[in-house]
């Protein structure tokens, strides 16, 4: 089969499209013929050696896929050959086929493969962040940085489902329009972020901030929190990991909360499974709808990753073998 392969931690252009051995189903594992592989910001960091996980080489990046069960190991009980499914795989997604443990595989029925990929990581991250880490309450104010990206759109939609007033923050007018279409109550830019948040909350500050950007935007939000607020640390798309003056948390009495979705799925698999059931239910009811910006050939993986890392993408990007 064909796959994207990293032979060394290197720039994205060093990725290779080449033949690798087909996976073989054994035990409780299934082989999935990939219809769509989701592209995520950490994928680009991983292949450059900039992520917290550093796998041995060679490896194939990609952490989420949707497709059809092609074969099943002898101990598989809950899945059948020919069934459409989606799965999280810490590696291996950018390929024509993926090996997955049935316990990490979700049936998706007729759901679009790209939508299924988005629900796994982008929506899974935002859902966990707002539900478990922030305990977002109806009537609270939620500020979403990077609100036109895949996780940002998810945070906007989930925030509205949970009853929050959502302020979306985006870098361009086009992106702000997308965030409003996703359900945001207001959409603003980064230029005067601290002043705008103060004005929009009548000086009270923001109850929950969803920060996947870091850098100067984090600095502004750290000075714009309400008492008992929760500043969620999702990632650092700006490329700058900010330094936090802890006296702000003391004086304003708010919490800075880390969100590492991958660790959550491993540490609390039952809660993760319940989250996915809720997300899939919301999708079926039309309450959440991923924005799939584009579907690209597997051979374009490096160029697509460049767009994601350069913050040029809106919504979800998907690779199609």
UniProtKB/TrEMBL annotation:
Pfam families per record: ADH_N (PF08240), ADH_zinc_N (PF00107)
GO molecular function: oxidoreductase activity
SMART domains reported in the protein's UniProt record: PKS_ER
Signal peptide location: none
Enoyl reductase (ER) domain location: 10-319
InterPro entries for the chain: ADH-like_C, ADH-like_N, ER, GroES-like_sf, NAD(P)-bd_dom_sf, Zn-ADH-like_protein
PANTHER family for the chain: QUINONE OXIDOREDUCTASE-LIKE PROTEIN 2 (PTHR43677:SF4), SHORT-CHAIN DEHYDROGENASE/REDUCTASE (PTHR43677)
Protein name, per record: NADPH:quinone oxidoreductase family protein
Upper classification of the organism: Bacteria, Pseudomonadati, Pseudomonadota, Alphaproteobacteria, Rhodobacterales
């Amino acid at each position: 089969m064909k796959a994207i392969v990293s032979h060394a931690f290197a720039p994205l252009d060093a990725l290779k499209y080449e033949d690798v051995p087909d996976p073989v189903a054994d035990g409780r594992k299934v082989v999935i013929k990939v219809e769509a592989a989701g592209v995520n910001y950490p994928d680009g960091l991983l292949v450059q050696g900039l992520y917290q996980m550093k796998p041995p080489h060679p490896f194939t990046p990609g952490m989420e896929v949707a497709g059809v069960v092609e074969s099943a190991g002898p101990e598989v009980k809950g899945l059948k050959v020919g069934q459409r499914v989606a799965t999280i795989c810490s590696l291996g997604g950018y390929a024509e086929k993926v090996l997955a443990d049935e316990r990490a595989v979700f049936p998706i029925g007729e759901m679009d493969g790209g939508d299924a990929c988005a629900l796994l990581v982008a929506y899974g991250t935002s859902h966990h962040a707002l539900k478990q880490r922030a305990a977002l309450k109806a009537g609270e104010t939620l500020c979403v940085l990077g609100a036109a990206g895949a996780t940002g759109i998810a945070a906007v939609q989930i925030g509205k489902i949970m009853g929050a007033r959502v302020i979306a923050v985006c870098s361009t007018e086009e992106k702000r329009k997308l965030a409003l279409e996703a359900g945001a109550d207001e959409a603003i830019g980064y230029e005067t972020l601290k002043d705008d948040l103060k004005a929009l909350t009548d000086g009270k500050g923001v109850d929950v901030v969803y920060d996947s950007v870091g850098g100067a935007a984090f600095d502004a939000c750290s000075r714009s929190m309400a008492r008992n607020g929760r500043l969620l640390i999702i990632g650092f798309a700006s490329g700058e990991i900010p330094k936090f003056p802890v006296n702000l948390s003391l004086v304003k009495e708010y919490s800075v909360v880390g969100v590492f979705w991958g660790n959550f799925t491993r540490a609390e698999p039952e809660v993760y499974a319940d989250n996915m059931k809720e997300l899939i239910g919301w999708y079926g009811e039309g309450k959440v709808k991923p924005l799939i910006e584009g579907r690209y050939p597997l051979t374009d993986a490096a160029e697509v990753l460049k767009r994601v890392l350069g913050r040029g993408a809106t919504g979800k990007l998907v690779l199609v073998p």
